[in-house]
Specification:
Shape: globular
CATH superfamily: Rhomboid-like
Radius of gyration: 17 Å
Structural class: mainly alpha
CATH topology: Rhomboid-like fold
Number of domains: 1
Number of strands: 2
CATH class: Mainly Alpha
Helix content: 55-70%
Largest sheet: 2 strands, antiparallel
Strand content: under 5%
Distance between the termini: 29 Å
């Protein structure tokens, strides 16, 4: 079993960035600063959080699911989900909601790993009970997005600072990235391997 270096490093980096009082302002997504050339904020904004509770909720999911995926023989799918999730969330935050000027949170990455984990858990030769649980998890994930869209309040992150709103689009994009990573990994696994010469 490999040590889960990517999971450990990602969670440690996010926890460190979120723990510094000035970390949020230095790393958060800021539409005006991105337009001014600080494009790294598209990714670093996904490392910092608005509150300690938000950080704990996001990073606990990243840690638990990352450990399961990275140490359970699903490392390539895990890496694909992280890469696609980070890129899709960054593009979504920048291109889709023009009213969104600031953004913080790892929930897009957590959503990518959540959907990927559910799909991996249901993959044959999974037991019928595992498939049922995975299907229920995906339905609850969809219900969470609908609830947050309708109510405008986060389900697990607690009360956010004044003026900060939940962004369900990020969770949707993360979930879609997790599904895309699952499909892409399956296609890559089905490719014939070159024979040694």
């Amino acid at each position: 079993m490999r040590f889960p270096w990517v999971t450990a490093g990602l969670v440690a980096a996010c926890a460190t960035a979120s723990s510094f009082p000035a970390g949020g302002d230095l790393l958060q997504y800021d539409r005006a600063r991105v337009a001014g050339g600080e494009v790294w904020r598209l990714l670093t904004g996904q490392m910092v959080h608005w509150t300690a509770r938000m950080a704990v909720a996001d990073l606990a999911v990243l840690l638990a699911l990352g450990l399961w995926l990275e140490t359970g023989g699903r490392r390539r799918a895990f890496l694909l989900a992280l890469i696609l999730g980070a890129v899709w969330v960054a593009l979504g935050v920048q291109l889709l909601p023009p009213h969104l000027t600031l953004y913080r949170g790892s929930s897009g990455l957590a959503s990518a790993l959540f959907v990927l984990t559910a799909l991996e858990a249901a993959r044959p030769p999974a037991r019928p009970s595992a498939r049922i649980l995975a299907t229920c998890a995906l339905l609850l994930f969809a219900a969470k997005i609908v609830w947050e869209t309708a109510g405008g309040h986060p389900l697990f992150a607690g009360t956010l600072p004044s003026g900060v709103q939940v962004t369900p689009m990020v969770h949707l994009l993360g979930g879609l990235a997790g599904a895309a990573a699952f499909v892409l990994n399956r296609k890559l696994s089905s490719l014939p391997r070159p024979r040694p010469i």
